[in-house]
Amino acid sequence: MHGDDARPWTFYAFAAFFTLFVLFLYGPMFVIYILSFQGPNGGMTFPLNGVSLHWFTALVSQTRVGDIAGSFVRSIGLAAIVAVVTVVLAVLAGLAFRRRFRGAAFAFYLAIASLIMPGLFVGLGIALTFRLLGMPTEWFTTGLGAQLTWTLPFGLLIMFAVLGRFNRSYEEAAIDLGATNWQKVREVTLPILLPGIIGVALFGFTLSYDEIARTALAAGSKNTLPLEIWAMTTNVTSPTLYAVGAVTTIVSFVVIILALGSIAIVQRRRAAAGMRTE
Amino acid sequence: MAPSTSMANGEVAVVGVTKRFGETTAVRDLSLTIPHGSYCCLLGPSGCGKTTILRMIAGHEKPTSGDIRIGGQSVLGLPQIQRGTAMMFQSYALFPHRSVLDNVAFALKMRGASTADRHAKARELLTKVQLEKFADRLPAQLSGGQQQRVALARALITNPRVLLLDEPLSALDEYLRLRMRGELRRVQKELGITFVHVTHTQLEAIAVADTVVVMAQGHIEQAASARDIFVSPRNAYVARFIGGQNVLSGTVESTMNGVAAVAGKNGARFAIPVGSLHPLRGSPLWGSIRRDRIAIEKIAPGTKPAGGLNTIQGEVHTLENQGSYVKVTLDLADNEEFVANVSDENFFASPLDIGERVVARWSASDVRLLDDGPIAQEAAPAGAAMATAG
């Protein structure tokens, strides 16, 4: 017989699997971060030939590696627009879907279907259509649209999860106390849903920020950051590539920390409001 | 906006209301009048339609047909706030992101009252429920009982003429539940407004209400004073549901002097008073006997007890000590539960064991006739019934 604290063999099996998972996820990334500090005369692989910030400074000098700075600004801007549009539409659609209307299931599956469409062909289709219509493809028009086909269904699914835990009697209580519909949404529904809504924004931003498949053919002449990096992997044969990887990862982390931080601030402010004594 | 004050007439009338949700009928042609200033409990198992009625009075559901009147006037189509009702939700629905003070002041904010005005009024109400010290807390930082009082204060700030309470005590632990139900009753008396309280707990309804409305499957089984519901349930459903009574059933053997002799399934015979009725011999009849009016005697092993009218024999199935009395459940070899509540003095003078054979006795005058289906009556006059009795 086992003691009470004996772990079943499945624990060790999953622990081993999880260890491999972590190694595969973070191992290669750390290799890239380390190699981004390669000395000025070092190559793309180990060993390190000294340690320097040479390749980071090389990033800024456009001439050598293409338009990293420009594509970075475009990507951040595009991700911000995508996040805002995704939040607005996903929240509205999520609220609308709580009411049963004719064709609700059909509309839902129609929206979700875009998640299983091959992304490259969605981008291709958009680009072709615009060409047929004689309109130019740009990152902020066709590129934006292509990315929304990816982020909106995600946002909608998250809103479903968020609203699934939302107790409707909060809204009924507001109406009962004389709130108009708009007062109800502003004073009760949105504030209670706020952490979930920040989550939708975060998803919209990060999905957009590293999207390639849909954006590749729909972004027009100016690249977003992932497209620029993709191009670099075939052209650039220096550790600059790794420096790009390190910087973009930092940006991703900053976005996540900002989002989690703002959720924490919202909650702390609520708690602090409660701790105040008269 | 119609200003509603506690002086306004808070009589609630549900008039022939039916409510269907798609295929299912939650409430079926139900009528009920709750007098102004009374405390009414809607009591029934889950799914009986009691919450639906409450929500229709509040305006959160629309009746499929029928009318809802408050103070004599139809409120169908009126916005919630103009009905003069306020609702206390199950688990209270206090806004988690607002302080206790702002929760209570919410209705005044919606009306556009200034911050100073609404906070002053809210503090006044918080003082009434003894929570003024907690004004700046968040709901999550309060105990269940405190949350309930905040919900009460928040509902009362609109000066409703009718307060609707949806399972107001179900989120509390046993100790608080008993304390708060007395508190609710006290508040209702003090304000003199109508309370409509939905619950599935029999003793809660009997403890607080003037009128108890026992419901099943979308209709009313009995609406009566709490005392009548307990002492004289109308039918077997109410008797079983309230739980203070045993249901006796059997077929009529004879009727004499307004008392029918009835043979039960397990050989027991008992008398059921039938008043001026003359039930047909062989027809089924139901009666009830209060659980606390039954005496239990042990049957000494090897002896045959005298049977006789108004006795039932059986084995002790379970024993539950309830403090002031012991609940003795007998196994009668039929499906009906038979319970005797024996006072602690009597029980412990001669304690019983599970499995012991006992005889239960009661007096015919404690038995009441139940109305379960039409009673088949003899066409012949009383004399004929007496003749067959021999």
Based on secondary structure, the structural category of chain A is mainly alpha
Q: What's the total count of β strands of chain A?
A: 0
**N-to-C terminal Cα separation of chain B, in Å?**
74 Å
Shape of chain B: elongated
Major β-sheet strand ordering of chain B: 6-7-8-3-9-10
Main interface: chain pair and counts: A-B, 26 and 32 residues
Helix segment count of chain B? 10
Low-confidence stretches of chain A: none
Q: Give me the Rg of chain B, rounded.
A: 26 Å
Tell me the series of helices and strands of chain A, N- to C-terminal: HHHHHHHHHHHH
Gyration radius of chain A, rounded: 24 Å
Give the tally of β-strands of chain B: 20
What oligomeric state best describes the polypeptide chains here?
heterodimer
Low-confidence residue ranges of chain B: 1-7, 382-390
Quick rundown:
The complex is a heterodimer of chains A (278) and B (390). By secondary structure, chain A is an all-alpha fold. Chain A has twelve helices and no strands.
